[in-house]
Amino acid sequence: MVKVVAFTFNPFQENTYLLHDETKECIIFDPGCSNAAEKQELVSYIEQNDLKPVRLINTHCHLDHIFGNGFIANKYDLGLEIHKGELPVLAQAPQSAARFGISVEPSPEPTNFIEEGDIIKFGNAELKAILTPGHSPASLSFYCEADKFIIAGDVLFHSSIGRTDLPGGDFNTLINSIKTKLLVLPDDTKVYPGHMQATTIGFEKEHNPFL
Question: I need a surface site. Which of 96, 104, 156, 181 has the fewest CB within 10 A?
Answer without folding.
Answer: 96
